[in-house]
Amino acid sequence: MPRIGEPLRDKVRQHHEYYQRGLHRSISHQHFIGFCEPEMYDEENACWVKTSSRRYSYISLFLRLRLIHFILIVLVSLSNLSASQKMPFDAREATIDSVHHALFSGLSTCREVVEAFLARIETFNNFTNAIISLNLNALEVADSMDEILAAGNATGPLFGVPILLKDNYDTAGIPTTGGNLALTESQPTEDAPSVAALKKAGAIILGKANLHELALEGISVSSLGGQTMNPYDSTRTPGGSSGGTGAAVASSFCVFGTGTDTVNSLRSPASANSLFSCRPTRGLITRTGIIPISYTQDTIGPIGRTLKDVAVALTVMASTGYDAADNATALVPPANRDIDYAASISSGTLQGVRIGVLNGFFNRTTSNETTPVNIVMDAMMQKLTSAGATLIPINETIYNATSILALDTQRYEYRELMDQYLTRPSLAGKHPATLKDLYATAPQTTNGTSGQFLVIPAQYEYVNTALISSTANSTYSTIQSDIKNLTLALPSTFALHKLSAVIYPEQKNLVVKLGSSSQSGRNGILAALTGCPVVTVPAGFSEPSGEAPIGVPIGMEILGLPWSEEMLLQIGYQIEGLTKVRRAPKWAGERVEGRAYERVPVVRPERWNIPEAYPLGTLQV
């Protein structure tokens, strides 16, 4: 039987929610009177019930008037706070929820939130060199959202949330360069569908993050953006190729960022910057409007400081649905469309979850670079076991990252895809017409101090081969056949051991030092070739040192079968709550005073910090 009345705490909560939603100004007098109708407390049913008894009329009238008086004082006080009395928005480790709390409670405006992140970027970008360009319209967008908020029409899961895009996402109004000097003036006339979805959900694009040039490696150095540094250890790289995004998110330059992943590029920066990411199943999110590398391997997704933020961002990005321009999107089963991934994560346990451990993805030799990873991973596996998970060692020889890497398809698909991208009608501005033109935009130099592109020496053979290769090569069909065998082997392994997921370190060693020949030891190739989803979570840190005051971050990949994003996010969410590993860089904990900007500041990347090991404008040793 329904009770008369309801607990008073629910009414208070209801009115708190009204205020958070910015509706307090429209609550009618009748609504307040209804809220405060004479009631008595029913001890048996533990709730307040309406009563018309004269026995309580005088007491009820007195209580009603006192309560009305109290509520009016509180609401008037909150709604009339002066700007000087408001608490400045704190961008440090901010989440989607914390931004929304600040906006919907009236503590901050969209403009103030954007200004808080701009102040951090302007103050600290020289610590990381993570930003290539800022969106000069960001403050205008924030102002328009403040008008929407004031009118009570704020909608969208990302309303007012400032984000950064990797600079290989097409954006109308902001050049899309891939970090390449020859593409400095390349201007898309349309947003990539994923960018349009983020904006439709209410996100505010703050700007573009640096990346390894054209997303081809993991050092995160480019001819336009220079070298991005790891915010935890400035002598090391931030992973890559989405290293600018990783460093920026770790430094609280935005709430979350976007990346791309052809082999490791979402997961490597997440691992190296104590962050979370999701490389989705190939086809879940359209790749239209992304500077391409490989049809077989390319995916896109979010990088964030919490798994919940990653889940919300993934939901929005996946809302693009089927795209005729990317036929991989036709592979998504109907049951896996329009999923709210944030709703799939909840409190729970790992009890009974069966997880495979890919032993072929570890380097068990002892060294200063590999030992910290093994120590952290062993500790993580112990925690998972203690939490009730069952870990099953997987020793099948097919799962050897070094051997699998030989199946990489990039060199056969790259030139054809780039030529298509560079000749699209929606790409305006000055830019090369073909990939060959891009790599011939300046005379080769003897000292490596000029030139319109940057290819690290370890990539010379790859790029030179890509310039003359195509999918018509006989080797390409052989590789695709081997990839198909690998793709079929994975579900067999899952079925044999009754697995929900498999785990392994994202990188067998610590993220490499600046000037290294390549980002060695990474394990992303299995997901890249099979198209399987992966959630990356922070696993721990190396021991602190002079260069790394709190240690170097180390991440773990959680790989599942296609379309298992919900399960992987739930497993990752349990691990996040169990281990609580994520920590901000030491210097990033410093609070930056809010600033009132008339216009978005100009932040120019430091191009002259490129290590001597990476000469510009050459494809030859």
SSE layout:
Elements: H1 8-20, H2 29-35, E1 39-42, E2 47-50, H3 54-79, H4 96-104, H5 110-128, E3 131-134, H6 138-150, E4 162-166, E5 186-188, H7 193-200, E6 204-209, E7 221-222, E8 226-227, H8 243-250, E9 256-261, H9 267-272, E10 276-279, E11 299-304, H10 307-318, E12 354-358, H11 371-386, E13 390-394, H12 401-405, H13 410-422, E14 427-429, H14 435-438, H15 460-466, H16 474-497, E15 501-505, H17 525-530, E16 534-541, E17 553-559, H18 565-579
Parallel strand pairs: 4-6, 4-9, 12-13, 12-15
Antiparallel strand pairs: 1-2, 3-6, 5-14, 7-8, 9-11, 10-11, 10-16, 15-17, 16-17
Helix pairs in contact: 5-6, 7-10, 13-15
Compact description:
With 621 residues, the chain is α+β, with helices and mostly antiparallel strands. 34% of the residues lie in helices and 13% in strands. The strands form 4 sheets. The protein has an 11-stranded mixed sheet with strand order 3-6-4-9-11-10-16-17-15-12-13, sandwiched between helices.
